[in-house]
Amino acid sequence: MKITVEILRYNPETGADPAFQSYTVDAQPANRVLDILMDIKRNQDGSLGFRKSCAHGVCGSDAMIINGKEGLACKTLVKDALPEGETTIKVEPLKHFPLQKDLMVDPDVFFEKYRSVSPFFIPAEAPPKSKEYIQSRDQRKKFDDPTKCILCSACYSACPVLDTESGFIGPAASAQAARFNKDSRDKGLAPRLAVLDGENGVWGCENHFECTRVCPREIKITKLINETKREIKQFKEEKGIE
């Protein structure tokens, strides 16, 4: 079947504002949006800019907005992207990022906020004599969900809070802080408080659930943020911190 793909184009060298450009392609319902973009770049317009790498939903590099919803181009099928009876797919770059070219955005602000929550293991104590930290299966399950994050930043784009509060650390950073806070071997909540416990930290989340809705790995991000809020409150009560 023939479909129309409307892509938001932007070339910083021309000085022109971003504008949609339409392409007509032959597509099958089971084709991926990434397949369609590659076909356009190879056969119609080599100047089209977008990112991709593994093409299997692991690297997260081809996140974009497809018909109004954030997702991975390599995991979104044509039949799922098209509303019933429609033949047009609209593709746009992620929101809340500086635009570089076409569907490519500058991820620096995302990773700066991600690094700010110390998303790494802060040990509670020195390694035991066995040089191995022992952890039960139940303890491991507590942080299984956020370990699935591929840093695609779809949640960051979808977050309504960032529409008005650009300083908010965002869903991905909050979820990764939760991943380590829930690790029985980690004692990093205290040093992470400076970032997490504030208006731009987890308290900035307004429970819109958009991050959870668009996550390609189906991580319960909003739930993790709310659990972090409760953990902070409990920690401060135990330590007598106002």
What does this 3D model show about the protein?
- With about 240 residues, this protein is an alpha+beta fold.
- The protein has two domains: about 1-100, Ubiquitin-like (UB roll), CATH 3.10.20.30; about 110-240, Orthogonal Bundle (Fumarate Reductase Iron-sulfur Protein, Chain B, domain 2).
- The protein is built from ten helices and seven strands.
- The strands form two sheets. Strands 2-1-5-3-4 form a five-stranded mixed β-sheet. A two-stranded antiparallel ribbon has the order 6-7.
- The chain is elongated and about 60 Å long.
- The relative contact order is 0.13.
- The model has no long low-confidence stretch (mean pLDDT about 95).
Total beta-strand segments? 7
Q: Considering the protein shown, what is the CATH homologous superfamily of the largest domain?
A: Alpha-helical ferredoxin
Order of helices and strands: EEHEEHEEEHHHHHHHH
Estimate what percentage of residues fall within beta strands.
5-15%
Radius of gyration, in angstroms, nearest whole number: 21 Å
CATH structural architecture of the largest domain: Orthogonal Bundle
Terminal CA distance reads 63 Å
